[in-house]
Amino acid sequence: MQAPRQNAAAADLQNLTVSLGDESDSEQDAVSYQVKHLDQMLTIDRSGSMAAPTAAPKMTSAKNAASLFVSAARADDKLGVVSFSGDDSEPNDDATLDALLQVMNTGNRVQARNQIATLTANGFTSIGDGIADSAAEYPIRGTAIGEDRIVLLSDGMENEGSFWNNVRGAVMSAGIKVDTIALGPLTDQALLQQIASDTGGTYHYVDVSSAGAAATAAHRANFTGAGGASGLANRLADAFFGSAEDAGDLQRFWDTRGSMPAGTSSEVIDLHEDRMVNAEVAINWPDTKAIPDVRLFDPNGNQVTPGPGVDVNRTDRNVVFQVDDMVRGRWTLKLDNPGTPLPFIAMAAGQEHQGVQLWVSRGTPQKLKERIPDSYRWGEPMPIVASLTDRGGAITDSHVTAHVTHPDGTVLNLPLFDDGNHADSQAGDGIYANTYTRTTDYATRGTDDLADKPNGSYGVRVTADGTAHNGDSFRRIENTSFAVFENGDPSPDSDRDKVADLYEGLHPQCMKVGDPGDVSLDPDNDRLDAFTEWRAGTDPCRPDTDNGGEPDGSELKRGANPFDPRDDALPRPEDPSVISRPIDHLGQPTLKSNTLLIRYPANPTYHVIRLWRSTSAAGPFSRIKDFDSTKRGGRYRDVKLVNGRTYFYKIQGIDFAGNPSTMSPVFSGTPKAHPFAPIGEVEINRGRTYTDSASVRLGLRTDSPVKQMQVSNNGVFKGAAWEPLAPGKAWTLEPGPDGFATVHTRFRDKWGNLSNPVSDEIRVRPGLVSISGQVKPDVPPGDGTMDGIYLWLVEASDLTIVRSNVDGTFTFPALPPGSYEVAARGAGYSTDSPVLLQPGVTTTVPVTCHGTC
After folding, report:
1. pLDDT in the model for residue 109
2. What does pTM read for this prediction?
3. Radius of gyration of the chain (CA)
4. How many CB atoms lie within 10 A of CB 520?
5. Distance (Å, rounded) from C-alpha 363 to C-alpha 544?
6. Of 318, 369, 511, 709, which one has the fewest beta carbons inside 10 Å?
7. What's the pLDDT tens digit per position in 608-664?
8. Is there a cis peptide before residue 737, judged by omega within 30 degrees of 0?
9. Pairing of strands 177-183, 310-314
10. Measuring CA to CA, which residue among 660, 636, 637 is closest to residue 552?
């Protein structure tokens, strides 16, 4: 939802009313049109663990990335710095106000950066003291209408007061949002996620291990520009800039990372939208041995320099260009690196003129019964939801993907759909969603910052590419994280099979809590045991998790994505069946005793059709035949069967590379000594279009020895009894409000073969009339009779065609009141032009002989 534009004379504060059906609620002064000012406090952990590892201390990278956040602050916003550690002595304040909350003019910005640069790591972790000291700045030096935000960076467990629970109430009642950045697996990931969730902030996880670095590189594989490894400082810069985007209501539309080569290079930013306002282009690198010269050029080739509408904030590790009006076209970052290749990250964000917005949310947490930090459970499915809107409303038909980084470093590209079938509300509403199910690792808690702990945080990068309502193409990017947590009491894996009880409970069709042996089974026959499916995130009870047509085992074997139906090698066979009666207008099939004729679907990806058979719907099924999918005309005859016994079938398609499709639904048939089903027909009142009464006469015909018929006013024959076949039957219609009524009939022969249902329709309309006339030839007929001339009502082709009698008379029965034009042809005669017929008048219809009459 976006607030409408207001003219300059409108009040700064506007009321808001939200209505849903019969319910509504209003808030006074709820929408502000005032210029948004940010009051932001950087709150940095400087506990002893931040000095590790010795070769590349986390504190060094944190100071680099924090300086980028300072550079990204707008000149009319306020920013301050607090750092915290702990001295193992309580009660005391273990935080330091390093830089006052001040407007970011040049001097204050330099001072904030300098204070960050002097931070050193030692002591314990007192997160509560850091947050409390930051919050204390707002009533003293905050802007009256400023939005109060804290960006909290920590790498450990809070192990000294004050604790978050000591300050939580005051922070939340003050309306302060806290964005949190968890630096590595030693962090209390669940706590930092809870702090962000409690206050309406965002949670970011940045890994520091070598596996984490690989994970981040893989996670960012879809960045534009060159790939390659990047340092911890760049990963942290990404998270800090994400917090700046969230605070400033900026939408990221471009980013890249890679290695800046020695010498001159460039990165291009193609902006396809009309313009971005309040835009920021940022670049960060971790090394100061050789400081590159970074310049930004607009689409006309002009260098962007400080001046009206432009600020440029530079340090020896980053540059941020702030451009009030970034117009459509190709912008270029030119990089002159005087040293060796240098890892870097670059990002661009702004507010699009047409208001294109990407909003991302994750699933609602399920909390453990006891009070623990806000977290997601081990094995819990995680819905990921994205919304795309602009000033024209919901944006549909976009390509939206969540790139989810698992703690083990692997990345799953999870497509988000707006089809109403993926936890996305309804189709075509601009809400895109899907569910991430590979929550197989989790975090734990403790007080020791240095003890090994598992990583339970998952990075989520959502990219959206589409077209706005004004026709402009766009890209949007949003990064976030979520943490999965368990405290071990009660055990989340009671049967010790290394699979979460929660996960097993969510799959009761094929898994059982308490049975450690179920993980070695393959209940869905996709060639993956349940433990492998758990680790992959696929569904152990369904052979094709993404419903694309190819089994999960086949997709994983060839490196495809089992969560994206678009990359399946071949579709699932749909609607195979045993032919027991005519199909549409294809005529009577060739059916034989002791055989069943099977119809299978054709598809250009199928090379072979594989047929499976059983005498039980539940199986087991035996593979009975592989045959060329193109040489049997879509039909296969299964022979040497026992008449009267029901056989159950499934089929698979096999492509030219040998990849199998998922099994078709089970279908069945019963061979018979006399397999031909009868063909029948029903007609109401001799095929008339109208009747003035619900009491009608049915005519019934069949082509074979039929013993019984079933007649009904509904297509499912509810309540209809079988009765002996008769050529005619009196019947009472059940017309709908519009007068239309349908009669359904089917037939059964003496061998029990059932026909396809047939039907006829008529409209019940009181006050019908009959119109009569007589054809008059210009030349007398040779045989002296005038029968054999057919007459029809012009522009009323749905009404009955009649035939003249021997004396030339005719009658159109059961017509709605009114006059009609009639035409005639037959026996060598035809009308030269339509003739008007009227009720109550016997009209002469002249016909002309053409040839022999």
Report:
1. 97
2. 0.79
3. 38
4. 11
5. 23
6. 369
7. 999 999 999 999 999 999 999 888 888 999 999 999 999 999 999 999 999 999 999
8. no
9. unpaired
10. 660
